[in-house]
């Protein structure tokens, strides 16, 4: 029995292999490629889809050479054959890479920041300007170039007339409660440019305040902008509503009269 089975295999298997090879060679391409091309050629519209070198059309997971605008082969695209991560898997890997990057920064680079620590020193009398910057930790932001400058009018070495003239010139930028002038600039691309502009502007204000040709004595001080920032005043409790001893006796007598009326 075993010898008969072996002889049958020797006769059947080669014939089956030859039949499969002939069938594979005669397999037609999908209708979208094999029929559309001749139809377009007969009707005179479009171009016939060319076949590859092996006689098959670019389907079934084969490599397709993408053509650029000028007809050049710029890259080779390949269909996904379940041999790589999905887009969601690559996003998860990117998230892990970013987390590990910040973990390495925390472990190896942040402890070295202690080497750059400087002891705080109070500003001297000549350092009357205070500048404030804004950073977004390496990310680009439209407000990153903004610089704010603050100074007190009494620290500029001006007399009373010159100081009042400076306060009138700066207008709404002056806070009468704290005697602080606050200005900002974001016209330029870099922070250094905005800082230089504010520094030059302060020098111009001091020059104008010291100009004796016009002292602005006929211009009154106007602090309505500061009152508006405070908001509406809080309502005050009327004095007539306060419960004084006399008021309490009057209320007790009225309640006693009402109780007599209700009893009748």
UniProtKB/TrEMBL annotation:
Determine the domain of life of the protein's source.
Answer: Eukaryota
Keyword terms:
Ribonucleoprotein, Ribosomal protein
Pfam families hit by this protein? MRP-S28 (PF10213)
Tell me which residues make up the Small ribosomal subunit protein mS35 mitochondrial conserved domain. Answer: 119-241
Which InterPro entries does this entry report, sorted A to Z? Ribosomal_mS35_mit (IPR019349), Ribosomal_mS35_mt (IPR039848)
Decide whether keyword Cell division is in the record. Answer: no
Location of the region described as Disordered in the Swiss-Prot/TrEMBL record: 43-72
Q: GO CC terms on record?
A: ribosome
PANTHER family xrefs: MITOCHONDRIAL 28S RIBOSOMAL PROTEIN S28, SMALL RIBOSOMAL SUBUNIT PROTEIN MS35
Identification of the protein by name: 37S ribosomal protein S24, mitochondrial
- Naturally occurring in which organism (per UniProt): Discina gigas
What is the name of the gene encoding this protein?
RSM24
């Amino acid at each position: 029995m075993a010898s008969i089975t072996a002889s049958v295999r020797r006769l059947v298997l080669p014939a089956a292999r030859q039949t499969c090879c002939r069938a594979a060679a005669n397999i037609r391409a999908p209708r979208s490629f094999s029929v559309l091309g001749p139809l377009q050629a007969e009707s005179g519209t479009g171009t016939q889809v060319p076949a590859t070198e092996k006689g098959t059309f670019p389907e079934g997971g084969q490599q397709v050479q993408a053509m650029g605008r000028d007809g050049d082969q710029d890259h080779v695209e390949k269909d996904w054959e379940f041999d790589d991560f999905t887009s969601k898997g690559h996003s998860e890997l990117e998230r892990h890479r970013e987390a590990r990057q910040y973990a390495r920064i925390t472990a190896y680079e942040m402890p070295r920041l202690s080497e750059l620590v400087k002891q705080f020193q109070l500003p001297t009398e000549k350092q009357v300007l205070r500048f404030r910057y804004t950073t977004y930790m390496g990310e680009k932001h439209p407000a990153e170039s903004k610089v704010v400058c603050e100074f007190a009018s009494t620290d500029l070495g001006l007399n009373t007339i010159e100081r009042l003239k400076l306060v009138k010139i700066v207008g709404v930028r002056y806070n009468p409660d704290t005697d602080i002038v606050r200005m900002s600039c974001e016209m330029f691309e870099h922070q250094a440019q905005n800082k230089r502009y504010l520094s030059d502007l302060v020098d111009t204000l001091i020059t104008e305040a010291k100009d004796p040709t016009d002292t602005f004595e006929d211009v009154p001080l106007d602090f309505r902008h500061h009152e508006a920032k405070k908001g509406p005043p809080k309502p005050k409790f009327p004095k007539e509503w306060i419960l004084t001893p006399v008021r309490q006796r009057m209320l007790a007598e009225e309640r006693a009269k009402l109780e007599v009326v209700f009893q009748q």
